[in-house]
Amino acid sequence: MPSEWDTHTALTATGDGLFGADLDAGWLVGGGVNGGYLLGVVGTAIAEAVPAKPHPLAVSAHYLSAARPGSAQVSTRVLREGGSVATVSAELAQEGSTRISVLATYGDLRAMPDDVATTAEPPRLPPLEECVAGSLAPEETRRVAPVMDRFDMRFDPACIGWAMGAPSGRGHIQAWFRMADGHDVDPVALLMVCDALPPVTFDLGRPGWAPTLELTVHVRAVPAPGWLRVSHRTRNIAGGMFEEDCEVWDSADRLVAQSRQLAMQPRA
pTM of the predicted model, to two decimals? Predict the structure, then answer.
């Protein structure tokens, strides 16, 4: 049985490098469709455009306008395909307007060296049973952000004070993560995971929709089965914008994805 993710990112080939998509309303958050989901739809199209190199390695997306549920078109153009990597540009459009523009490098993570040398440390999270389930969010919140129902997230209690009106002020949110239907996350879906948690500005006492301007994701490995750990941080709000740095770790204690996002500061 296909996963919900596979169903919601399914494409129909319509021509040379062109694909039709149906953006699902279950990915709405605030004023538009979740940016990570949109990047996953485009990432799926790129993988189909270069089937010998199915995995994203480096993906940079610029968000031009908010997307809505319904029909969309993805156009891809292979700029270069070499022995180990391919560079592809892509756009997702609706009603004649470009929603996001993407430049990506793809390859085959399974064919790459598996040695690791790192000073990075996995997020320290309490056991699952001691964390706070996202399903406990108020019904009103989940109605405004049905995207929350796509995931099973268990938040670190030390990072969830914002939900009770007592943000820590550290600019840090982290959680255990898996898809709500229990299916494991693949490398393309990691593009979405990097934008799945609530905006890290919530922990600074600044709730609200935070539209993404730009998102760059580096995918480092195929995730091992099981729960992921996702950590978001910010250090600077300036000019009405903030950065959000994300790390995704798998059940084998490997750093499988990293990202940096520039987003607009939520407004009251």
Answer: 0.95
Residues 6+ apart with CB under 8 A from 48: 11, 13, 19
d(CA 106, CA 52): 9
Question: What is the three-class DSSP state of 97?
Answer: strand
Residue corresponding to tokens 């296909």: 2
Q: Please tell me the total number of residues recorded for the chain in this structure.
A: 268
Query: How much is the pLDDT for 30?
Result: 79
Phi, psi of 82, rounded to the nearest 5 degrees: -105, -160
Q: What gap in Å lies between CA 239 and CA 258, rounded to an integer? A: 24
Q: How far is residue 268's CA from residue 258's CA, in Å, rounded to a whole number?
A: 29
C-alpha torsion sign, points 20, 213, 3, 163: negative
Distance of CA 53 to the CA centre of its chain: 20
State both tokens at 132. 């706070």
How far apart, in whole angstroms, are the C-alpha atoms of residue 18 and residue 39? Answer: 16
pLDDT tens digits for 200-227?
999 999 988 889 999 999 999 999 999 9
Tell the residue number behind the tokens 């189909």, with chain if given. Answer: 48
Find where tokens 């994300």 sit. 246
